[in-house]
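Q: How would the C-alpha cells look for this protein?
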Amino acid sequence: MASKKYEFAISRRAEREFHGIIQYLIDEFASPQAANRFYKSVQKAYGKIKKFSYMGPPIGKLYMDCSEYRKFVLSSYNIYYIILDNTVTIVSIMHQSRSTDNLK
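A: Here is the predicted structure in C-alpha cell form.
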C-alpha cells in the first residue's frame, strides 16, 4: 500500500502507560539506562508507525464504534493504534502478557 501522510496523535492513556513503564524500569530495575533505551525504541517505533501506518497487522475491532486496531510489536511490549480518517492514534502501550481486554 502506498505511503500516505497521516496526522499523528498519542492518547492520554498511552502517554500514562509510556511514562509508567519508564518509571517502572527506573524504580524496579534501578536502570535509567534501560528506561532510556525503551524511550528511544518507542520514539523510533512511533516514527515507523507514522510513516508506514498499515505495517502493523490488524487485530480486529475492539469497540463497536471505531476502525480496526493494529499492533506494533516492540520487544516484550505491544503498541496498539488505530487509523481514523487522516490520523494515526496510539491508543495503548502494554506488556505482551496483558490481555487486550484491558483496552476496553
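The chain has a mean pLDDT of 87.

DSSP finds two helices and five strands in the chain.

Upvote if useful.
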